[in-house]
Amino acid sequence: MGAPRKLAAGLLKAVLRLVPEESRQWATAMLHELDFVDGDWAALFWALGSVTAILRHAASVFRMNLKRPAKEAGMNNTGRKALGITLGALSALFVAGCAFPLLRLISLMFPELGYGHASWPYWLTVIMIPEAIFAVATVLLWRKRGPVAAGILATALIMGLHVAVHAAMH
Amino acid sequence: MKLRMSPQTILTLDAFLERPEEWKYGYDLSRTTGLKSGTMYPILMRLAERKLLETQWEIADPGKPPRHMYRFTPEGLRFARANAPEQATGGLGQVALGLAEL
Fold first, then answer.
1. I need a labelling partner for A57 at 20 to 30 A (CA). Which of A13, A87, A147, A164 fits?
2. What is the rounded (10 degree) CA torsion for A151, A155, A161, A164?
3. Does residue A122 belong to the interface with chain B, where contact is any CB pair within 8 Å?
4. Are B52 and B44 in contact (CB under 8 A)?
């Protein structure tokens, strides 16, 4: 098994662990189908397309779940806010988690760049891009989905603080 | 039932119409239609959510992962035929490809 195919399988397995229950059947289907794809690079492209499809599906499930609690009379306002914050935090963690497979992919495709903790690809992929996504998502969601935006913002701040402390100590 | 009939959706429906009674695999569909996984799977998901496709796990041989299979439900077959009156093999797909190339 070549490196691209290994990476493809790793990517799909990582996504499979992260996606909600509703998307898991499709993620498993795509992962199993990977064994039948001819060629290592074709397998990698298959996995990348599959990951996109799964994430889109998971996002639609996420949106549906977000709307559902508002319609349920049984859940009070505090419960809805807590759920929104949790969903925001989880989605932010998911985005941050995606940075590592991306970094791995970059390191595989461009080994000359280097990807140690002090290198710019590392900082760009693991910190700058996720933090930029969090900032944009927070601004976009602030009015309509305040608790979700708060969850994303809180996670972004904690992660930023973690990076600052880490940088100061090392 | 509303379903956006993009050229890619038409291609997928056409692939299922060739032998509607047969179960089909994702990768085989991808090769038949020429669609990438990132395009084809969302279409399959939408069709399955609208109950136009039924899905099933294949009973696999030992050492092989079970594969997910798809085929039309009776409603899906009616829907596809209603949207593809000519139904000739490849006919709709060629139209769709022509549309996609425009």
1. A147
2. -140
3. no
4. no
List chain B residues with CB under 8 Å of A28.
68
A53–chain B Cβ distance below 8 A for any pair? yes
Mutation to test the A interface, candidates B12, B27, B31, most A Cβ within 10 Å: B27
Show residues of chain A in contact with B45, CB under 8 Å. Answer: 26, 53, 57
Order across the sheet with B24-25: list the strands: B24-25, B68-72, B53-57
- For chain A (170 residues), the mean pLDDT of every run of 10, in chain order, is 88 89 92 91 94 91 72 63 82 80 77 67 77 83 81 83 78
Read off the DSSP letter of residue B15: H
Partner-chain contact A28 B68, CB within 8 Å: yes
| From B39, B40, B65, residue closest to A32, measured CB to CB | B65
Instruction: Retrieve residue A114's tokens.
Output: 């280097």
Count of C-beta atoms within a 10 Å radius of residue A46: 26
Asked if B38 and A50 come within 8 Å (Cβ–Cβ), the reply is yes
CA B69 to CA B57: how far, in whole Å?
6
pTM strictly above 0.95 = no
Q: Which domains does chain B have, with CATH numbers?
A: 7-89 (1.10.10.10)
The amino acid at residue A70 is A
Strands (E), B1-102: 24-25, 53-57, 68-72
Give the chain B residue nearest A32 (alpha carbons): B65
